């Protein structure tokens, strides 16, 4: 799968000929100033929760691409009600759906909070497990370390995972290493770090902490793509 990093927690993943875009927060992010959102493709936009640093660019990208917006019922319903986004799929924690080309999505519990940019109720935060004939990965969203993660490898074999590593608002590096062990993966892509001073990380220390447990941590530059 080809993975493109757009900054903060926003990634595009090409799988089975479809483009999955996660948590688009680009235009307000000074670190992503060279990313043109009009050029970002999307067949599906997946939202882990309603905070502004995860949904800021949903409306322009959804309008430009006509992508289906998928997430918790209250989050996608807000975009329908407030912004007229009609192509939505409102789900909830534990729910499972099969998209086109045998892409399957399951919503996984996340330990965080959720509200919409106007302060209205944003339902429960979630992560996603995406499985297809090309492989299976876990996008954790914003979360603390949780024993619930131990349930994931009981159902799925995780090839790689997107995990927050910035601390302060989410789990930090040490907890993310533990999370990788809980979900039994050896490939991690870091997210939710460096965007603001309180979540700055020491990249060398982060990579070493994962290496000590024989886990590879990927920290691509914004705009770059990797293959996993």
From TrEMBL:
The keyword Hydrolase applies. Residues 7-192 form the Metallo-beta-lactamase domain. It comes from the Bacteria. One of its GO terms (molecular function) is hydrolase activity. Keywords: Hydrolase. InterPro entries: Metallo-B-lactamas (IPR001279), RibonucZ/Hydroxyglut_hydro (IPR036866), UPF0173 (IPR022877), UPF0173_UPF0282_UlaG_hydrolase (IPR050114). The keyword Hydrolase applies. NCBIfam families: PRK00685.1. Belongs to the UPF0173 family. PANTHER family: UPF0173 METAL-DEPENDENT HYDROLASE MJ1163, UPF0173 METAL-DEPENDENT HYDROLASE MJ1163-RELATED. This is UPF0173 metal-dependent hydrolase GCM10023331_22940. It comes from Algivirga pacifica.
């Amino acid at each position: 799968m080809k993975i493109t990093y757009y900054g903060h927690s926003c990634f595009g993943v090409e799988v089975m000929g479809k483009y999955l875009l996660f948590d688009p927060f680009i235009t307000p992010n000074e670190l992503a100033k060279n990313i043109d959102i009009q050029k970002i493709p999307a067949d599906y936009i997946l939202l882990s929760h309603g905070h502004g640093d995860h949904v800021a660019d949903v409306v322009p990208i959804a309008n430009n691409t006509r992508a289906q917006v998928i997430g918790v019922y209250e989050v996608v319903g807000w975009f329908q009600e407030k912004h007229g986004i009609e192509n939505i799929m409102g789900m909830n924690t534990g729910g499972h759906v099969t998209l086109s080309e045998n892409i399957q999505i399951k919503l996984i519990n996340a330990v965080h909070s959720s509200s919409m940019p106007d302060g209205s109720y944003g339902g429960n935060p979630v992560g996603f497990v995406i499985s297809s004939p090309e492989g299976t990965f876990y996008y954790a969203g914003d979360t603390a370390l949780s024993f619930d993660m131990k349930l994931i490898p009981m159902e799925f074999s995780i090839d790689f995972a997107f995990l927050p590593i910035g601390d302060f608002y989410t789990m930090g590096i040490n907890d993310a290493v533990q999370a990788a062990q809980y979900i039994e993966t050896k490939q991690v892509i870091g997210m939710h770090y460096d965007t603001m001073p309180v979540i700055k990380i020491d990249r060398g220390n982060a990579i070493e902490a994962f290496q000590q447990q024989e886990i590879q941590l990927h920290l691509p530059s914004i705009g770059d793509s990797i293959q996993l």
